[in-house]
Design goal:
Blueprint: E1 6-10, H1 17-28, E2 31-34, H2 35-48, H3 56-65, E3 68-73, E4 76-81, E5 84-85, H4 93-102, H5 106-117, E6 125-129, H6 132-136, E7 142-147, H7 150-163, H8 170-186, E8 199-202, H9 208-222
Parallel strand pairs: 1-6, 1-7, 2-6, 7-8
Antiparallel strand pairs: 3-4, 4-5
Helix pairs in contact: 1-9, 2-4, 3-5, 7-8
Bound molecules: 2'-deoxycytidine-5'-monophosphate.
GO molecular function, one term: dCMP kinase activity
Domain Cytidylate kinase: 7-220
Keywords: ATP-binding, Cytoplasm, Kinase, Nucleotide-binding, Transferase
């Protein structure tokens, strides 16, 4: 039997995956998996438990008992750790950096694999991450790799922070983005890279509407 349809969208942070995958899930009526949120919740829970981000064994144990769920509300998808709503708390820069460190451990990734695959159900799934098309759903019917220059990604992040009334230093953001990219691209297991059969989209000079239209056209050729 044919497996449920998966649209795998990978790429570095700030390339626009979040907005694109949200729109795609709505367009096709599919479930949305934000796999980065899983690594972020694990980093957050580990921090609360006083674990070090280099302690792979303890992180695996934490991953195995992680009580994580997603809840669709009027204002978007909420992320829960047990009963605690951590939607906002996991989005800090510091927790993003910790998530990237946690995600670099091979055994942590293995521990979270089946949890992610369980989201593949009818009528279909849009999966947002770094290794959706390469490792988690290697047989996804559609694979898209969305990239953008580090400078453009830093500018977008700066605007997001400013819009939220937070302080945003462009040089600092660019430095953090570059360091996180390095770690995500160079880790030995499931590094950030396009699947061989992925459509490469560079959003540096594209609006979100253009990215969305291009992606939709491509997806329809695969359905
Ligand atoms: O997409 P994000 O910024 O929420 O992801 C946070 C970190 O989690 C990112 O730096 C790398 C890691 N990650 C990963 O290794 N694999 C995924 N599929 C998704 C995220």
């Amino acid at each position: 039997m044919e497996k449920a349809f998966v649209i795998a969208v990978d790429g570095p942070g700030g390339a626009g995956k979040g907005e694109l995958t949200k729109r795609l899930a709505k367009e096709f009526g599919f479930t949305l998996l934000d796999s980065g949120a899983i690594y972020r919740v694990l980093a957050y829970a580990a921090r609360q438990a006083g674990l070090a981000m280099f302690d792979e064994d303890s992180l695996v144990q934490e991953a195995n008992v992680l009580s994580l769920s997603f809840k669709v509300e009027d204002d978007g998808v909420h992320v829960l750790l047990g009963k605690e709503d951590v939607t906002k708390a996991i989005r800090t820069e510091e927790n993003g950096i910790n998530a990237s460190k946690v995600a670099a451990h091979p055994l942590v990734r293995t521990a979270l694999l089946e949890r992610q695959r369980a989201f593949r159900q009818e009528p279909g799934l849009v999966a947002d991450g770094r290794d959706m098309g390469t490792v988690v759903f290697p047989d996804a019917q559609v694979k898209i790799f969305l990239d953008a220059s580090p400078e453009v990604r830093a500018t977008r992040r700066q605007k997001q922070l400013e819009a939220a009334g937070k302080e945003a230093d462009y040089e600092q953001i660019l430095k953090e983005i570059t360091e996180r990219d390095e770690r995500d691209r160079n880790r030995p297991v499931a590094p950030l890279k396009p699947a061989e059969d992925a459509l490469l989209l560079d959003s540096t000079n594209m609006s979100i509407e253009e990215v969305f239209e291009t992606a939709c056209q491509y997806i329809r050729t695969k359905m």
